[in-house]
Design goal:
Layout: H1 6-9, H2 15-21, E1 41-43, E2 51-56, H3 62-78, E3 81-82, E4 86-87, H4 92-104, E5 109-112, H5 121-129, E6 134-137, E7 148-152, H6 154-168, E8 172-178, H7 184-200, E9 204-210, H8 215-228, E10 232-237, H9 240-253, E11 267-272, H10 275-283, E12 288-291, H11 294-309, E13 312-314, E14 317-318, E15 324-327, E16 333-337, E17 341-342
Parallel strand pairs: 2-3, 2-4, 2-5, 5-6, 6-7, 7-16, 8-9, 8-10, 10-11, 11-12
Antiparallel strand pairs: 1-13, 12-17, 14-15, 15-16
């Protein structure tokens, strides 16, 4: 979730992608290279045909609602025969059931957004036993076999939030409203933010709210925290789709929602890049967000599942769509898509997906 002024954009580029890709041998196999083939693709045959199941983690967030809307459009553009999406409704055990149900329907490929990085292994093993390839979107599994993870660099999300707040707030208390720590996304964003503040902005004190991607939890815990810490100067919301509304409502109820430049303004940065966040930036209710690419998640989820069904494999290295395929410590490959920082300076950029949806 990068982009602000031109001078700062390069500073905030994903630190992991370049380092991981250095030294990677990028050799395209003559029989398998295709457009958007990433860091190199080779093919073992297969026609890529057959039904594809698409499993969502939840639909209560505007981000996932947007992703859900993009799926059929991107499936069509990529030539993938996708079934109607299935919503696991924030329940990791239900997600395993959903995977098994799709497998029992005879799907030839699965695109899954895991709820729990560890629990998803059971579903991945079921798919592997049936010879059905899986592409993971948004969350990287800790174990299990997937053809590709389509995801932005979540460590960079936390670092960008830290850098932005550190530039705006010289000292004092800042809050990070964390996601579910059972998810690698929540863990990476939290640790990256925490470590970056400790290293680069020692005058900031980080206060933390474990909120599990739950809006009610975020609201009640933020209310309690602000009662005890009315001198809070900054807030990092790890998911604007679920935390934006309750955070703004809590601040309004306390008379603490001030526009930039006003006395008592609390600097707020978020993750997601949904239209509601863009409107909040325009109104001066929040200062920035990191745009997680819902459109690209859907597009490349479909691209990679079709490639996997054709027997293609990939190697680490830069792609032709402004991303880098990296090899994770688990051995899984991840296409780390760009995610720009959005502020009042570029919030109206028509290229941002949040400006293309209603």
């Amino acid at each position: 979730m990068p982009g602000r002024t031109v001078g700062k954009r390069n500073m905030f580029r994903s630190v992991g992608t370049v380092a991981t890709a250095v030294g990677a041998s990028i050799v395209l196999a003559a029989c398998g290279s295709t457009k958007d083939a990433g860091g190199g693709a080779s093919s073992a045959g297969g026609d890529g045909k057959g039904k594809v199941g698409v499993i969502l983690p939840l639909l209560t967030s505007p981000f996932w609602q947007s992703y859900n809307d993009y799926v059929p459009k991107m499936a069509k553009s990529e030539g993938v025969d996708a079934l109607k999406t299935v919503n696991s409704n924030s329940d990791p055990s239900q997600q395993i059931t959903d995977i098994n149900n799709e497998l029992n329907q005879g799907v030839k490929g699965l695109v899954v957004a895991p709820l729990d990085s560890a629990a998803i292994e059971a579903g991945l093993d079921q798919a592997d036993r049936k010879g059905v390839p899986v592409v993971a979107v948004d969350v990287a599994p800790e174990k299990g076999k997937v053809a590709m993870v389509v995801r932005a660099n979540n460590v960079a999300y936390g670092e960008k939030a830290c850098q932005y707040l550190g530039e705006k707030v010289s000292s004092g208390k800042v809050v990070q409203i964390m996601g579910d720590l059972a998810s690698v996304n929540g863990r990476e964003r939290s640790e990256a933010f925490r470590s970056c503040v400790k290293k680069n902005f020692p005058k900031l004190k980080v206060l933390e709210i474990p909120a599990k991607w739950e809006s009610d939890t975020a609201a009640s815990k933020l209310d309690t925290l602000l009662n005890a810490n009315p001198d809070t100067k900054g807030i990092y919301m790890q998911a604007g789709g679920v935390y934006l509304a309750p955070t703004l409502q809590t601040l309004k109820s306390k008379g603490m929602l001030k526009k930039p430049g006003q006395s008592g303004h609390i600097t707020i940065i978020s993750n997601d890049g949904i239209p509601q966040e863009f409107d909040a930036i325009r109104k001066g209710e929040i200062d920035a967000t990191v745009s997680q690419p819902a459109d690209a998640y859907a597009k490349y989820g479909m691209y990679y599942i079709k490639a996997a069904m054709q027997g293609k494999t990939f190697k680490p290295g830069p792609t032709d769509h402004d991303s880098t395929i990296v090899k994770l410590p688990s051995g899984i490959l991840e296409d780390q898509l760009p995610a720009p920082l959005v502020t009042k300076d570029n919030v109206d950029d028509p290229k941002l997906w949040g400006n293309t949806v209603k």
